[in-house]
Q: What sequence folds into this?
């Protein structure tokens, strides 16, 4: 039987920032693959390496002060080997990114129509008129009301939710195969958040794009993702289908994350159960499991070596020495 290769294939990715007094090991051996049209959420607390992973896929980390090891293949292209010109063509055309704050992607001094049309002409050639027609089509697809008039707007003339939609239109302008989204909805109010997420989901189905998005919010992941990768200390500690991760998380860190969310839903004023302890120091990572110092199940041996991924279900794995102790009751 013929199998299609994954659209994203990341092997043993390591990212170290070397600009400071001590090297910061932000990503420490990430393996990840994504099928065409699939949506993966990356969860984890602040500093776990979610954004650095996404940025590595577009080579957006500051290269002079960063050491990158491993391989990143997207749509058959070897991302870490791309030359500057190839990288320019790759960005936007093969992989595109939307940010938490549209101001990072949108230029304040050009109208939205001009920006989208210019991106299309730059990547694909053709006339400005044709590109404007495509921009109009994109505005319709991302459901911006009065799209023709809105194309003539500057970013500051739109509401936050509309700016997000315009940014998504810009990101889709060159038909990318993979869309990366770094907490695309945190800056928006709840109703607009849900609308934007449903829009991403719909576009993803319509265009067959693979989506990788970072979030702090498990509820958001449930709404949109097929699979989830949970990161801790620059490693994926658990990965699997969203339903399995919600119903039967098997890494003690994921179990802790799920508990803190359950408490989050309680009445205001209830003390949240946070996972005691603090995240690992990335300038001084321990040799063993980075979660061991905070883990209720840890044995002394957990601090000695790195746990390999253990299969705990269909397409579900956890990097933990104690998965025999974490089976849901
Ligand atoms: N350019 C950089 N130079 C040095 N350290 C960096 C740089 N970029 C990120 N880091 C460090 O790498 C680690 C991982 O950062 P990253 O932004 O991926 O975390 P994150 O999981 O996305 O967190 P958050 O949810 O807060 O965005 C952090 O400790 C961060 O301080």
A:
């Amino acid at each position: 039987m013929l199998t299609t290769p994954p659209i994203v294939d990341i092997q043993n990715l390591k990212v170290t920032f070397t600009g400071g007094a001590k090297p910061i090991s932000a990503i420490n051996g990430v393996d990840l693959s994504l099928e065409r049209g699939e949506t993966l959420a990356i969860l984890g607390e602040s500093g776990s390496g979610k954004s650095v992973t996404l940025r590595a896929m577009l080579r957006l980390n500051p290269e002079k002060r960063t050491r990158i090891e491993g391989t990143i293949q997207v749509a058959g292209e070897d991302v870490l080997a791309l030359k500057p010109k190839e990288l320019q063509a790759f960005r936007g055309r093969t992989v595109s990114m939307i940010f938490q704050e549209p101001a990072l992607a949108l230029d304040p001094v050009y109208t939205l129509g001009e920006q989208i049309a210019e991106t299309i002409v730059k990547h694909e050639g053709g006339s400005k008129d044709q590109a404007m027609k495509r921009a109009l089509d994109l505005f319709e697809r991302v459901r911006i009301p009065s799209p023709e008039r809105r194309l003539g707007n500057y970013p500051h003339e739109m509401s936050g939710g509309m700016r997000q939609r315009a940014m998504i239109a810009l990101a889709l302008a060159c038909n990318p195969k993979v869309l990366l989204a770094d907490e695309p909805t945190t800056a928006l109010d709840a109703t607009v958040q849900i609308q934007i997420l449903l829009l991403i989901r719909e576009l993803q189905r319509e265009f067959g794009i693979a989506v990788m998005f970072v979030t702090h919010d498990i509820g958001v992941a449930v709404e949109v993702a097929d699979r989830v990768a949970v990161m801790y200390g620059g490693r994926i500690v658990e990965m699997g289908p969203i339903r399995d991760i919600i119903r039967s998380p098997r890494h003690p860190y994921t179990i802790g994350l799920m508990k803190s969310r359950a408490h989050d839903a309680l009445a205001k004023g209830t003390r949240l159960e946070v996972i005691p302890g603090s995240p690992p120091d990335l300038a001084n990572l321990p040799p063993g499991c980075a979660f061991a110092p905070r883990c209720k199940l840890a044995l002394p041996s957990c601090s000695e070596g790195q746990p390999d991924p253990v299969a705990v279900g269909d397409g579900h794995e956890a990097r933990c020495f104690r998965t025999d102790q974490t089976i849901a009751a």
User: Anything to note?
Assistant: The CA atoms of residues 118 and 128 lie 7 Å apart. Residues 8-233 form a domain with the Rossmann fold fold (CATH 3.40.50.300).
